[in-house]
C-alpha cells in the first residue's frame, strides 16, 4: 500500500487535503440533503395543518369547493370528509409527521382523537375521493401532473366526531440537479483550493529540493565552491533554514581548510627531522644498529603518511575520472609481483567507473598488504554483482574472529597488539580503505571464508 502513496512533501500534502476535502464535502452533502428533506417535511406538515384547520372556509359540508372562478376547470379537492379512513394495510405511516401535525393542531385548539399520515401515489381510487361530484376525471385541472407525483395524506378525526377529515399535499419532486450542482461545486473547490495549496507548497519544496541537492553534493565533496550555494528563497522559515545551512557549510569549509593547513605543517615539521635523522644514522658504524634505526625511521614515516592520508580523505585534491577498475587493480598487483610478493590476479571483468584513481589504488594496496602480512598471500578479483563493482581480496589465513571484525576497521586497531611493522604496523590500513570506499559511495566489507581465510571486499555502486 505504501508504494502507491506519494513520497514527496507536496504529494502527501495534496493527498491529505484532497481526502480531507472529500470527507468534508461528503459530510456537507449529507447535511444539505438532510436539511432539504427536513424543510420539505415541515412544508408538507404545515400545508396539511392549514388545510385541516381552515379548509372548510371555502368548502361545503362534504369538503367540496363551494364555487370556482368562471371559465376554469375544476380541480382536485385538497380537503374532503369521509366516513372511513383511506389508510390501507400496506401503507406506511409516517410517525414523525404525525407527531409534528398533532402538535400543530393541538396548538390551534383542535383535540385530535385519531391521526394518520401516510404517503403513496395518487392512484385511481384515492383520486376519485378528491374529485368534484359529477365531473370526469380527465376534465379536472392538474390531474395529469398529480398522477406523476406522490401525495401525502393526513386523515384526522376529532374527539366526539366519527367523520374523518382527509387532507392531501403533493410532494414535489426533488431537485434533479442537486447532485450535479454539488459535484460541480466540489470540482470548483478542488480546483481553487488545490491550485492555491500547490502554489504554496511549490514555494516551499522547490528551495528544499535545491538545498537537499546541495547537502548531498557537499557531503560527497566538501571542496565545493561557495558560488554553488543555494540562495535563500521561499517562505521566511525556508529562507532561515537555507541561510543557516549556508553559514554551517562555510564554517565547515573553513575548518577543513584550517585542518589541511595544519596537517601540511605537521607533515613538514615531522618529516624534516626524520629525514635529518636518516642522514645522521649513516655515521653509525655498527651495521646492525644502523639497519634497526633506519627501519624505525621508515616505520615512523609510513605511519605519518597513513595518518595524514586518513585525515585528508574527506577532502581529496585529485579529480574524479572514469577509470577501468580491472586495469587499476592489475597495476597494483604488478607492483607486488615485482617485489616478489605471493599475490595473484584472479578473474576480472571490465568495469569503468568515475573514481579517484590514486585513492582507490591505495585502498587496494592496503588490503593486499594486510593479506600478505597476515595470511602469506592473496588472490584479487574484480566482478559485477547486484549493481555493484566488487574488488575482492581473498586469502587463506587464520581470518578474524566474528566479534572482532567491526573493531578491526577502527583506527589503530589490529590483531597483533604490538606496533611492529613486520607484524602489523599501526592499524590504520583497514580504516583508510573503508574511508576511501565510503568516499566513493561504497562500503568495505570483511567476512570469513567457510573453508578458512578472510575476504575483504570494496563494493562500489555502478550508478
TrEMBL record:
Record's subcellular location: Cell membrane
Keywords noted in UniProt: ATP-binding, Cell membrane, Kinase, Membrane, Nucleotide-binding, Phosphoprotein, Transferase
SMART domains, sorted: HATPase_c, HisKA
Record membrane topology: Multi-pass membrane protein
Pfam families: HATPase_c
GO MF terms, alphabetically ordered: ATP binding; phosphorelay sensor kinase activity
GO CC, one annotated term: plasma membrane
Catalytic activity: ATP + protein L-histidine = ADP + protein N-phospho-L-histidine
UniProt-listed Gene3D superfamilies: 1.10.287.130, Histidine kinase-like ATPase, C-terminal domain
The protein's Enzyme Commission number: 2.7.13.3
Domain of life: Bacteria
CDD domains, alphabetized: HisKA
InterPro entries: 2C_sensor_his_kinase, HATPase_C_sf, HATPase_dom, His_kinase_dom, HisK_dim/P_dom, HisK_dim/P_sf, Sig_transdc_His_kin-like_C
The name this protein goes by in its record: histidine kinase
Species this protein is from: Croceicoccus naphthovorans
Amino acid at each position: 500500500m505504501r508504494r502507491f502513496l506519494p513520497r514527496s512533501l507536496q504529494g502527501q500534502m495534496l493527498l491529505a487535503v484532497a481526502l480531507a476535502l472529500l470527507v468534508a464535502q461528503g459530510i456537507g452533502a449529507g447535511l444539505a440533503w438532510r436539511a432539504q428533506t427536513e424543510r420539505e417535511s415541515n412544508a408538507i406538515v404545515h400545508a396539511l395543518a392549514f388545510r385541516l384547520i381552515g379548509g372548510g372556509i371555502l368548502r361545503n359540508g362534504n369538503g367540496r369547493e363551494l364555487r370556482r372562478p368562471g371559465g376554469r376547470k375544476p380541480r382536485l379537492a385538497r380537503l374532503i370528509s369521509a366516513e372511513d379512513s383511506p389508510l390501507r394495510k400496506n401503507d406506511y405511516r409516517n410517525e414523525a409527521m404525525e407527531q409534528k401535525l398533532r402538535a400543530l393542531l393541538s396548538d390551534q385548539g383542535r383535540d385530535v382523537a385519531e391521526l394518520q399520515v401516510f404517503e403513496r401515489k395518487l392512484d385511481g381510487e384515492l383520486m376519485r375521493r378528491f374529485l368534484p361530484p359529477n365531473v370526469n376525471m380527465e376534465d379536472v385541472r392538474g390531474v395529469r401532473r398529480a398522477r406523476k407525483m406522490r401525495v401525502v395524506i393526513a386523515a384526522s378525526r376529532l374527539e366526539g366526531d366519527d367523520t374523518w377529515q382527509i387532507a392531501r399535499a403533493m410532494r414535489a419532486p426533488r431537485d434533479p440537479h442537486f447532485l450535479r450542482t454539488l459535484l460541480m461545486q466540489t470540482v470548483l473547490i478542488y480546483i481553487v483550493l488545490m491550485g492555491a495549496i500547490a502554489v504554496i507548497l511549490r514555494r516551499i519544496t522547490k528551495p528544499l529540493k535545491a538545498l537537499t541537492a546541495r547537502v548531498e553534493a557537499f557531503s560527497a565533496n566538501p571542496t565545493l565552491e561557495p558560488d554553488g550555494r543555494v540562495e535563500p528563497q521561499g517562505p521566511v522559515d525556508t529562507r532561515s533554514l537555507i541561510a543557516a545551512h549556508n553559514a554551517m557549510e562555510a564554517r565547515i569549509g573553513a575548518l577543513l581548510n584550517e585542518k589541511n593547513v595544519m596537517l601540511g605543517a605537521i607533515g613538514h615539521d615531522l618529516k624534516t627531522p626524520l629525514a635529518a635523522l636518516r642522514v645522521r644514522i649513516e655515521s653509525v658504524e655498527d651495521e646492525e644498529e644502523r639497519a634497526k634505526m633506519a627501519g624505525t625511521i621508515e616505520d615512523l614515516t609510513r605511519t605519518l603518511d597513513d595518518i595524514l592520508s586518513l585525515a585528508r580523505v574527506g577532502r581529496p585534491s585529485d579529480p574524479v575520472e572514469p577509470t577501468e577498475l580491472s586495469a587499476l587493480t592489475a597495476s597494483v598487483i604488478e607492483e607486488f609481483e615485482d617485489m616478489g610478493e605471493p599475490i595473484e590476479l584472479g578473474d576480472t571483468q571490465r568495469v569503468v567507473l568515475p573514481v579517484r584513481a590514486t585513492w582507490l589504488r591505495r585502498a587496494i594496496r592496503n588490503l593486499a598488504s594486510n593479506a600478505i602480512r597476515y595470511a602469506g598471500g592473496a588472490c584479487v578479483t574484480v566482478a559485477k554483482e547486484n549493481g555493484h563493482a566488487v574488488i575482492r581480496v581473498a586469502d587463506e589465513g587464520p581470518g578474524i574472529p566474528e566479534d572482532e571484525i567491526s573493531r578491526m576497521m577502527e583506527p589503530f586497531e589490529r590483531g597483533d597488539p604490538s606496533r611492529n611493522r613486520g607484524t602489523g604496523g599501526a592499524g590504520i590500513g583497514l580504516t583508510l580503505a573503508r574511508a576511501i570506499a565510503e568516499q566513493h559511495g561504497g562500503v568495505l566489507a570483511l567476512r570469513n571464508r567457510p573453508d578458512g581465510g578472510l575476504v575483504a571486499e570494496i563494493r562500489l555502486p555502478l550508478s
